[in-house]
Amino acid sequence: MLRREAFRLPRHPASVGFARYRVRQHLASWGHASNDEMTERVVLLASELAANVVRHGPILEREFELAVTARADGSCFIAVSDESPAQPVLHDVPTGDDEKGRGLHLVDQLAQTWGVRPRGRHGKTVWAVVRHPRPHTVPGLQKPCG
């Protein structure tokens, strides 16, 4: 792990935009260009995962946690934790008329891998990994690393 930033946000619709802002800010301070493909993917994933908590989280839950980690291999790990034990379900692909059900499909398309980690009585963490589109290379090696 190179750098990690975690913060708590109120379970409120305005937190989705603030999550995007904070994640973009952290990635920029870690040297990621604001408009590169990886930054855009990580910001969009943070937005979708935060929106899922706001929409589907427990009614009495006041806050949720979002963490973004820049890893040594050049990838980013994004995680959103809430107090609901309910596992998200990837449903059939929504049609053009569906107003809901797109969030996890977007996560599934943007992340190299994603999953859910139960936190016992304290809910769950939904996580995703985004790898840099241009893998890092180590001098002297033919294969890309990461």
From TrEMBL:
Residues 13-128 form the Histidine kinase/HSP90-like ATPase domain. Transmembrane segments: none annotated. It holds the Pfam family HATPase_c_2. It comes from the Bacteria. InterPro entries: Anti-sigma-factor_SerPK (IPR050267), HATPase_C_sf (IPR036890), HATPase_dom (IPR003594). GO terms for molecular function: ATP binding. Keywords: ATP-binding, Kinase, Nucleotide-binding, Serine/threonine-protein kinase, Transferase. This is ATP-binding protein. It comes from Streptomyces longisporus.
